[in-house]
Structure formats: structure tokens, C-alpha cells
Amino acid sequence: MKNKKIGLDLDGVLYPFAEIAHKVLKERHGFEWGLKDFWARELQVKYYEPEIKAIAQDSNTYCIEEIDPYIPVVLNQLVAMGNTIYYITARGKKHREVTEWWLTESGVPFIENLHLGKHHKAPIAKELGLDVFVDDRDFVVRQVGKVTLALRYYSKYMTEEAWRESEHGISSLGELIGMKL
Ligand SMILES: [Mg+2]
Q1: Is 18 helix (H, G, I), strand (E, B) or coil?
Q2: pTM exceeds 0.85 for this model
Q3: Taking Cα atoms as reference points, which of 106, 181, 173, 123 lies closest to residue 149?
Q4: Ligand 1 centroid distance, CA of 113 (Å)
Q5: Is 86 helix (H, G, I), strand (E, B) or coil?
Q6: Does the 5-16+66-178 domain belong in CATH 3.40.50.1000?
Q7: Which residue has the higher pLDDT, 4 or 166?
Q8: For the segment 68-86, what is each residue's pLDDT rounded down to a tens digit?
Q9: Distance from the CA of 8 to the center of ligand 1, in angstroms?
Q10: For ligand 1, a single-atom ion, which residues have Cβ within 5 Å?
Q11: Could you tell me the residue ranges of all domains in the chain?
Q12: How would you classify the pairing of strands 84-88 and 169-170?
């Protein structure tokens, strides 16, 4: 992929949010489910959804985990190939400082292209003229897929079954490098 505009979601794609949400809920409720087991149970995830959303908007959880060291390597290589990176997240605008700090520490490029408070990602993908957008959630991929190429990145928490069933998926961000658009 060369000279393209690449949009990335933060939580679940760059930031290992699923691990954190699972850890917080496990401590809070004392359940026994492991990471994959928890996220594989649809009803259970729905039941805890309000809490999961609250954790996603709690900046105290934004610096707990480090980035997968492979990700900055991939993103910097994409930039060396002439691509521009954009970060698009539903995190509130008041979380700019902590989010920029984490991105800077992570060594990823184009931190100035951070767009916060984007609960609906299709309009911003269109406005920026993104050539591709990567998100961890199915419904976001479907929505953004109406305006540009949207890919689902299978985060670590996905089960093998979900990995096989998901459409428009990539199993690693590194796949973007060789992709022909
Ligand atoms: Mg996400």
C-alpha cells in the first residue's frame, strides 16, 4: 500500500482494551471466565455493556497496557511507503492529553492526526477521504464499509471461530503493507 490515507481505531486495534475491560470486570465481579471465554459469550458481553462503555471512557485505564511492539514497526514502515496515518476514536475530547501521551510513548507516527469523540466513524472517514479504515468491531466495519474499504482487525481476544467467521478481516496490521489498493 503506497501513498494512501489509512485510518485506525484506537481501543481494540492499537490499545489492548479488551484485556483491560476483562481484567477490571473480573476483579469487580469475581467471575472465572478467561479473556477469550468472556468475549466469546455474546449475552454476557451484552449484560456488561454499560460497564464496558464506562471503562472505555475512563482515562485511568488508558495507560495500563503498552502497545504491541510490532505495531509501531508496521506503522512507521507504512509511512516510509508514503502513506498517512489517522487515528479515529470514540474516546472523549477531554482525553486528548492522556491519549497523545500514550501514542507518543508508543512511538507511532502522525499523532497530530488524532480525532477524538467520533462515535460515528463513517462521516469522518468520508470527510478525511480515507482509503482504508481498520476497526475491531463488526458493526463499525459495516458502517464505514459504505464509504470506503473497511477492515476488521482481529484482536487477541477474538476466538478462533469468530476469526474464521468474520468478513473483511485481517489477522495482522502487517497485512496492510502488502495490500494493493
Ligand atoms: Mg474499538
Answers
A1: helix
A2: yes
A3: 181
A4: 17
A5: strand
A6: yes
A7: 4
A8: 899 999 999 999 999 999 9
A9: 9
A10: 9, 11-12, 136
A11: 5-16+66-178, 17-61
A12: unpaired
